Amino acid sequence: xxxxxKFELMNKIVRELEDLQNSQTALITKIGQIEVDNMNGLNDKxxxxxxxxxxxxxxxxxxxxxxxxxxxxxxxxEYAAQNGAAIAAIEAAAAIxxxx
Length: 100
Prior knowledge:
Number of helices: 2
Distance between the termini: 23 Å
Structural class: mainly alpha
């Protein structure tokens, strides 16, 4: 795998981590809405207890994904800074080959 391919794979992972982060945030929102709906009349104790636990666990996952995302994004940016010239040269050569 050349440096440009590695960089593109790192970009793909960053996009996937961002998507995972957004998905986890959407889960928090959905659980919160169910909790509010339950409090607005149903008052089911089972839902109250279990949704509260689920909310806490998903919130921990959001924190973990956010930390991983930030770490890997920094790692990708450092790689780009260290290998920018090589990546640009590989991409330029590939563009020239594509024109031929």
